[in-house]
Amino acid sequence: MASSLTPTPSTSRPYLFNVVVSLPQGETPPGALPLVVAELSKRHSCRLLLLPSLGEVSAYPTHFSILSQLIPDLPIYLLWGHDPVEDLPLLSLLLPFAKRLIFDLSSSKRSSLGAFTLEKTLPTLSSEASCELMDLSWARLMPWRRALAQLFNGEEALAELHQAHTITLSMASKEGVVPKASTPENYLGDYLQGLYLISWLTSRLGWHWIDARRTSEGCSLTCQKTPSQDSVQFILQSSPHELDPGTLLSLEISGTKASYSLGLYGKRRIAIVHITREDRCDMPFTVPMQTTLSTPSFMQELLHARVSIHYPTAMQYLAEIPWSSFHH
Protein backbone atom coordinates (compact mmCIF):
# COMPACT_ATOMS: atom_id res chain seq x y z
CA MET A 1 0.00 0.00 0.00
CA ALA A 2 2.85 2.33 0.76
CA SER A 3 4.02 2.06 -2.83
CA SER A 4 0.88 3.89 -3.99
CA LEU A 5 1.96 6.98 -2.07
CA THR A 6 4.36 9.45 -3.65
CA PRO A 7 6.93 11.07 -1.34
CA THR A 8 9.08 13.92 -2.54
CA PRO A 9 12.76 13.09 -3.11
CA SER A 10 15.15 13.83 -0.29
CA THR A 11 17.26 17.00 -0.39
CA SER A 12 20.47 18.09 1.24
CA ARG A 13 18.49 20.36 3.58
CA PRO A 14 17.03 18.90 6.78
CA TYR A 15 13.27 18.56 6.88
CA LEU A 16 11.44 20.95 9.21
CA PHE A 17 7.88 19.61 8.86
CA ASN A 18 5.71 17.08 7.04
CA VAL A 19 3.00 17.92 4.49
CA VAL A 20 0.40 15.37 3.39
CA VAL A 21 -1.21 16.47 0.12
CA SER A 22 -4.56 15.21 -1.14
CA LEU A 23 -5.61 16.63 -4.52
CA PRO A 24 -8.22 15.42 -7.04
CA GLN A 25 -6.71 13.01 -9.53
CA GLY A 26 -7.12 12.85 -13.31
CA GLU A 27 -7.91 16.55 -13.70
CA THR A 28 -6.39 19.96 -13.16
CA PRO A 29 -7.33 20.76 -9.55
CA PRO A 30 -9.15 24.08 -9.19
CA GLY A 31 -8.15 26.85 -6.86
CA ALA A 32 -4.83 27.81 -5.32
CA LEU A 33 -3.81 24.57 -3.58
CA PRO A 34 -1.68 23.23 -6.49
CA LEU A 35 0.25 26.53 -6.48
CA VAL A 36 0.85 26.18 -2.75
CA VAL A 37 2.14 22.63 -3.29
CA ALA A 38 4.55 23.89 -5.96
CA GLU A 39 5.76 26.68 -3.67
CA LEU A 40 6.32 24.25 -0.80
CA SER A 41 8.26 21.87 -3.03
CA LYS A 42 10.46 24.65 -4.40
CA ARG A 43 11.26 26.81 -1.40
CA HIS A 44 10.53 24.97 1.83
CA SER A 45 12.37 22.17 3.64
CA CYS A 46 9.48 19.80 4.15
CA ARG A 47 8.62 16.17 3.55
CA LEU A 48 5.85 16.23 0.94
CA LEU A 49 3.71 13.12 0.61
CA LEU A 50 1.18 12.99 -2.23
CA LEU A 51 -1.81 10.76 -1.63
CA PRO A 52 -3.40 8.66 -4.38
CA SER A 53 -6.99 9.19 -5.37
CA LEU A 54 -9.15 8.63 -2.32
CA GLY A 55 -11.33 6.23 -4.27
CA GLU A 56 -8.41 3.83 -4.85
CA VAL A 57 -7.71 2.81 -1.26
CA SER A 58 -9.68 2.37 1.94
CA ALA A 59 -9.25 4.81 4.81
CA TYR A 60 -7.68 2.54 7.44
CA PRO A 61 -4.70 1.15 5.49
CA THR A 62 -4.12 4.58 3.94
CA HIS A 63 -3.60 6.39 7.21
CA PHE A 64 -1.11 3.75 8.42
CA SER A 65 0.76 4.01 5.11
CA ILE A 66 0.86 7.79 5.41
CA LEU A 67 2.22 7.85 8.94
CA SER A 68 4.91 5.26 8.16
CA GLN A 69 6.40 7.50 5.45
CA LEU A 70 6.55 10.72 7.44
CA ILE A 71 9.48 12.01 9.46
CA PRO A 72 8.83 11.23 13.14
CA ASP A 73 8.57 14.04 15.70
CA LEU A 74 8.05 16.74 13.05
CA PRO A 75 4.77 18.70 12.70
CA ILE A 76 2.27 17.30 10.18
CA TYR A 77 0.24 19.60 7.92
CA LEU A 78 -2.70 18.26 5.91
CA LEU A 79 -3.15 20.07 2.58
CA TRP A 80 -6.61 18.95 1.50
CA GLY A 81 -7.92 19.53 -2.03
CA HIS A 82 -11.04 17.40 -1.63
CA ASP A 83 -14.21 18.37 0.19
CA PRO A 84 -13.20 18.17 3.87
CA VAL A 85 -16.71 17.18 4.97
CA GLU A 86 -17.00 14.30 2.49
CA ASP A 87 -13.54 13.08 3.51
CA LEU A 88 -14.27 13.03 7.24
CA PRO A 89 -13.75 9.21 7.55
CA LEU A 90 -10.13 9.61 6.45
CA LEU A 91 -9.59 12.97 8.11
CA SER A 92 -10.85 11.66 11.45
CA LEU A 93 -7.95 9.22 11.40
CA LEU A 94 -5.32 11.78 10.38
CA LEU A 95 -6.38 14.83 12.40
CA PRO A 96 -5.21 13.47 15.78
CA PHE A 97 -1.65 13.46 14.38
CA ALA A 98 -1.86 16.78 12.50
CA LYS A 99 -0.90 20.27 13.56
CA ARG A 100 -3.04 22.02 10.96
CA LEU A 101 -5.64 21.17 8.29
CA ILE A 102 -5.36 23.49 5.26
CA PHE A 103 -8.21 23.45 2.73
CA ASP A 104 -9.73 25.61 -0.01
CA LEU A 105 -13.46 26.04 0.50
CA SER A 106 -13.74 28.26 -2.59
CA SER A 107 -12.96 25.30 -4.88
CA SER A 108 -15.48 22.96 -3.26
CA LYS A 109 -18.07 21.68 -5.71
CA ARG A 110 -20.76 22.22 -3.09
CA SER A 111 -19.41 25.33 -1.40
CA SER A 112 -22.64 26.41 0.30
CA LEU A 113 -23.36 23.10 1.98
CA GLY A 114 -19.65 22.77 2.70
CA ALA A 115 -19.64 26.07 4.58
CA PHE A 116 -22.53 25.14 6.82
CA THR A 117 -21.36 21.60 7.60
CA LEU A 118 -17.78 22.77 7.94
CA GLU A 119 -18.79 25.33 10.55
CA LYS A 120 -20.67 22.68 12.53
CA THR A 121 -18.48 19.61 12.06
CA LEU A 122 -14.81 20.39 11.56
CA PRO A 123 -14.29 22.79 14.50
CA THR A 124 -15.59 20.15 16.91
CA LEU A 125 -13.47 17.45 15.31
CA SER A 126 -10.35 19.62 15.20
CA SER A 127 -10.88 20.67 18.81
CA GLU A 128 -11.03 17.06 19.92
CA ALA A 129 -7.88 16.31 17.94
CA SER A 130 -6.08 19.58 18.86
CA CYS A 131 -5.77 20.39 15.15
CA GLU A 132 -5.92 23.91 13.73
CA LEU A 133 -8.07 24.87 10.72
CA MET A 134 -6.91 27.17 7.92
CA ASP A 135 -8.80 28.07 4.76
CA LEU A 136 -6.66 29.46 1.93
CA SER A 137 -9.18 32.24 1.28
CA TRP A 138 -8.92 33.36 4.90
CA ALA A 139 -5.11 33.31 4.82
CA ARG A 140 -5.06 35.43 1.65
CA LEU A 141 -7.16 38.09 3.41
CA MET A 142 -4.51 38.72 6.04
CA PRO A 143 -3.26 41.98 4.38
CA TRP A 144 -6.84 43.28 4.06
CA ARG A 145 -7.64 42.53 7.71
CA ARG A 146 -4.46 44.26 8.84
CA ALA A 147 -5.14 47.29 6.65
CA LEU A 148 -8.69 47.71 7.99
CA ALA A 149 -7.55 47.21 11.58
CA GLN A 150 -4.96 49.97 11.12
CA LEU A 151 -7.34 52.35 9.33
CA PHE A 152 -10.04 52.11 11.99
CA ASN A 153 -7.83 51.90 15.05
CA GLY A 154 -8.69 55.39 16.34
CA GLU A 155 -11.98 56.47 17.94
CA GLU A 156 -12.84 58.95 15.18
CA ALA A 157 -12.25 56.46 12.36
CA LEU A 158 -14.13 53.70 14.19
CA ALA A 159 -17.10 56.02 14.70
CA GLU A 160 -17.06 56.76 10.96
CA LEU A 161 -17.11 53.04 10.22
CA HIS A 162 -20.16 52.61 12.44
CA GLN A 163 -21.88 55.36 10.41
CA ALA A 164 -21.39 53.50 7.12
CA HIS A 165 -24.51 52.81 5.06
CA THR A 166 -22.98 51.03 2.03
CA ILE A 167 -19.87 48.84 1.73
CA THR A 168 -18.96 47.63 -1.77
CA LEU A 169 -16.48 44.84 -2.50
CA SER A 170 -15.19 43.97 -5.96
CA MET A 171 -13.76 40.52 -6.78
CA ALA A 172 -11.72 39.46 -9.81
CA SER A 173 -13.33 37.41 -12.56
CA LYS A 174 -12.09 36.07 -15.88
CA GLU A 175 -12.41 38.34 -18.88
CA GLY A 176 -15.93 38.01 -20.25
CA VAL A 177 -17.03 35.59 -17.51
CA VAL A 178 -19.71 36.72 -15.08
CA PRO A 179 -20.21 34.51 -11.98
CA LYS A 180 -23.51 32.66 -12.09
CA ALA A 181 -26.30 34.29 -10.12
CA SER A 182 -28.63 31.36 -9.67
CA THR A 183 -27.87 29.95 -6.24
CA PRO A 184 -26.02 30.85 -3.03
CA GLU A 185 -23.57 28.05 -3.82
CA ASN A 186 -22.12 30.17 -6.63
CA TYR A 187 -21.43 33.05 -4.28
CA LEU A 188 -19.59 30.99 -1.72
CA GLY A 189 -17.19 29.99 -4.49
CA ASP A 190 -16.95 33.17 -6.55
CA TYR A 191 -17.15 35.67 -3.68
CA LEU A 192 -15.76 33.71 -0.74
CA GLN A 193 -12.97 36.18 0.03
CA GLY A 194 -15.47 39.03 0.14
CA LEU A 195 -17.90 37.01 2.27
CA TYR A 196 -15.12 36.09 4.68
CA LEU A 197 -14.04 39.72 5.02
CA ILE A 198 -17.51 41.10 5.70
CA SER A 199 -18.25 38.19 8.05
CA TRP A 200 -15.10 39.08 9.97
CA LEU A 201 -15.98 42.78 9.93
CA THR A 202 -19.57 42.32 11.10
CA SER A 203 -18.49 39.90 13.82
CA ARG A 204 -16.01 42.44 15.21
CA LEU A 205 -18.56 45.27 15.10
CA GLY A 206 -21.44 43.26 16.54
CA TRP A 207 -23.69 43.69 13.49
CA HIS A 208 -26.22 41.01 12.50
CA TRP A 209 -27.50 39.71 9.14
CA ILE A 210 -31.08 40.46 8.18
CA ASP A 211 -31.22 39.88 4.41
CA ALA A 212 -29.39 38.39 1.38
CA ARG A 213 -30.48 39.07 -2.21
CA ARG A 214 -29.31 38.69 -5.78
CA THR A 215 -28.37 41.69 -7.89
CA SER A 216 -27.61 42.05 -11.60
CA GLU A 217 -23.88 42.32 -10.83
CA GLY A 218 -23.55 40.00 -7.85
CA CYS A 219 -25.31 39.88 -4.51
CA SER A 220 -26.37 42.21 -1.72
CA LEU A 221 -26.41 41.50 2.00
CA THR A 222 -27.91 43.69 4.70
CA CYS A 223 -26.86 43.96 8.35
CA GLN A 224 -28.47 45.66 11.29
CA LYS A 225 -26.10 47.72 13.38
CA THR A 226 -26.22 47.81 17.15
CA PRO A 227 -27.14 49.73 19.22
CA SER A 228 -28.29 52.26 16.58
CA GLN A 229 -30.56 49.72 14.80
CA ASP A 230 -29.62 51.35 11.49
CA SER A 231 -28.85 49.08 8.55
CA VAL A 232 -25.79 48.77 6.34
CA GLN A 233 -25.75 47.21 2.89
CA PHE A 234 -22.87 45.07 1.58
CA ILE A 235 -22.64 44.86 -2.21
CA LEU A 236 -20.48 42.11 -3.74
CA GLN A 237 -19.67 42.40 -7.43
CA SER A 238 -17.19 41.02 -9.95
CA SER A 239 -14.80 42.78 -12.28
CA PRO A 240 -12.67 41.29 -15.12
CA HIS A 241 -9.06 41.12 -13.96
CA GLU A 242 -5.85 39.21 -14.61
CA LEU A 243 -5.61 38.07 -10.98
CA ASP A 244 -7.08 34.74 -9.90
CA PRO A 245 -10.91 34.69 -10.02
CA GLY A 246 -12.34 35.46 -6.59
CA THR A 247 -9.40 37.64 -5.51
CA LEU A 248 -10.55 40.70 -3.61
CA LEU A 249 -9.67 43.80 -5.64
CA SER A 250 -11.21 46.75 -3.84
CA LEU A 251 -13.29 47.85 -0.88
CA GLU A 252 -15.34 51.05 -0.69
CA ILE A 253 -17.02 52.25 2.51
CA SER A 254 -19.59 55.02 2.14
CA GLY A 255 -20.89 56.73 5.26
CA THR A 256 -22.76 59.82 6.38
CA LYS A 257 -19.61 61.69 7.40
CA ALA A 258 -16.75 59.93 5.62
CA SER A 259 -15.91 57.57 2.77
CA TYR A 260 -12.99 55.16 2.53
CA SER A 261 -11.67 53.46 -0.62
CA LEU A 262 -8.98 50.75 -0.79
CA GLY A 263 -7.96 49.25 -4.11
CA LEU A 264 -5.11 47.10 -5.39
CA TYR A 265 -2.73 49.02 -7.62
CA GLY A 266 -1.87 47.08 -10.77
CA LYS A 267 0.54 44.21 -10.21
CA ARG A 268 2.27 45.99 -7.34
CA ARG A 269 1.85 44.57 -3.86
CA ILE A 270 0.19 47.68 -2.49
CA ALA A 271 -3.27 49.18 -2.15
CA ILE A 272 -4.06 52.87 -2.53
CA VAL A 273 -6.25 54.37 0.18
CA HIS A 274 -8.49 57.41 -0.35
CA ILE A 275 -10.33 59.03 2.57
CA THR A 276 -12.94 61.73 2.02
CA ARG A 277 -14.66 63.58 4.87
CA GLU A 278 -17.28 66.32 5.01
CA ASP A 279 -14.71 69.08 5.45
CA ARG A 280 -11.62 67.70 3.72
CA CYS A 281 -10.05 65.09 1.44
CA ASP A 282 -6.95 63.41 2.85
CA MET A 283 -3.92 62.82 0.65
CA PRO A 284 -3.98 59.30 -0.82
CA PHE A 285 -1.51 56.86 0.71
CA THR A 286 -0.52 53.23 0.24
CA VAL A 287 -0.59 50.16 2.46
CA PRO A 288 1.19 46.80 1.92
CA MET A 289 -1.02 44.25 0.20
CA GLN A 290 1.03 41.13 -0.47
CA THR A 291 -1.76 38.80 -1.57
CA THR A 292 0.20 36.55 -3.95
CA LEU A 293 0.83 32.95 -2.90
CA SER A 294 4.60 33.13 -3.28
CA THR A 295 5.21 35.87 -0.71
CA PRO A 296 6.90 34.87 2.56
CA SER A 297 4.19 36.64 4.56
CA PHE A 298 1.46 34.49 3.00
CA MET A 299 3.32 31.23 3.62
CA GLN A 300 4.03 32.35 7.18
CA GLU A 301 0.31 33.00 7.72
CA LEU A 302 -0.63 29.70 6.10
CA LEU A 303 1.80 27.44 7.94
CA HIS A 304 3.35 28.98 11.01
CA ALA A 305 1.44 31.98 12.32
CA ARG A 306 -1.05 31.31 15.08
CA VAL A 307 -4.56 30.91 13.66
CA SER A 308 -6.53 34.04 14.54
CA ILE A 309 -9.17 33.65 17.21
CA HIS A 310 -11.37 35.70 14.86
CA TYR A 311 -11.51 32.89 12.29
CA PRO A 312 -14.05 30.59 14.05
CA THR A 313 -16.30 33.60 14.73
CA ALA A 314 -16.08 34.76 11.11
CA MET A 315 -16.92 31.23 9.93
CA GLN A 316 -19.93 31.19 12.24
CA TYR A 317 -21.14 34.53 10.83
CA LEU A 318 -20.60 33.18 7.30
CA ALA A 319 -22.80 30.19 8.09
CA GLU A 320 -25.52 32.48 9.51
CA ILE A 321 -26.04 34.50 6.31
CA PRO A 322 -29.83 34.30 5.64
CA TRP A 323 -29.70 32.63 2.23
CA SER A 324 -33.38 31.65 2.67
CA SER A 325 -34.34 35.11 1.38
CA PHE A 326 -31.87 34.90 -1.49
CA HIS A 327 -34.39 33.97 -4.19
CA HIS A 328 -36.98 36.59 -3.20
Q: Unreliable stretches, pLDDT < 50, 5 or more residues?
A: none
Secondary-structure arrangement, i.e. CATH architecture of the largest domain: 2-Layer Sandwich
Question: In the CATH hierarchy, what is the class of the largest domain?
Answer: Alpha Beta
Number of separate domains: 2
The counted number of beta strands is: 14
Percent range for β-strand residues? 25-35%
Assembly status: single chain
Percent range of helical residues? 25-40%
First-last Cα distance? 52 Å
Compute the number of helices: 11
Order of strands in the sheet with most strands: 8-9-10-7-11-12-13-14
Q: Any idea what the radius of gyration is? A: 21 Å
Average pLDDT, rounded to a whole number, is 81
**Dominant shape:** globular
Query: From the helix content, strand content and strand pairing, which structural class follows?
Result: alpha/beta
